[in-house]
């Protein structure tokens, strides 16, 4: 069985990398994956009506928190805002969309100089129980 998360990517060509087995990801808990010098935070959503159309999906975002500059997004708190799955950064508690990477709540802080406030998102495919992440 195969599923594709509904994530937009600005790149037309991606390199698919094997991340882990779907069973290695616990619902509502993040996991970090390293692909060369790219750190990715993976999140599996539970099969829960609170997540509506996103239930059971796997999302991948950059692991770098643009506000603290620590690679900690995989330690964030998973939740929802108006039905959209989110992750709250563990350091200063900014809230980001797992679908778009957009920073929804800045907690009255600015990202570190030179960094965008939003997270990069990566496409995810689950093929035969294996999670693959699309990298530029």
TrEMBL record:
Residues 16-133 form the Rieske-like [2Fe-2S] domain. PROSITE patterns: NIRD. This is Rieske-like [2Fe-2S] domain-containing protein. The keyword Electron transport does not apply. Gene3D superfamilies: Rieske [2Fe-2S] iron-sulphur domain. PANTHER family: NITRITE REDUCTASE (NADH) SMALL SUBUNIT, PTHR40562. One of its GO terms (molecular function) is nitrite reductase [NAD(P)H] activity. It comes from the Bacteria. One of its GO terms (biological process) is nitrate assimilation. Coiled coil: none annotated. Keywords: Nitrate assimilation, Oxidoreductase. It comes from Promicromonospora soli.
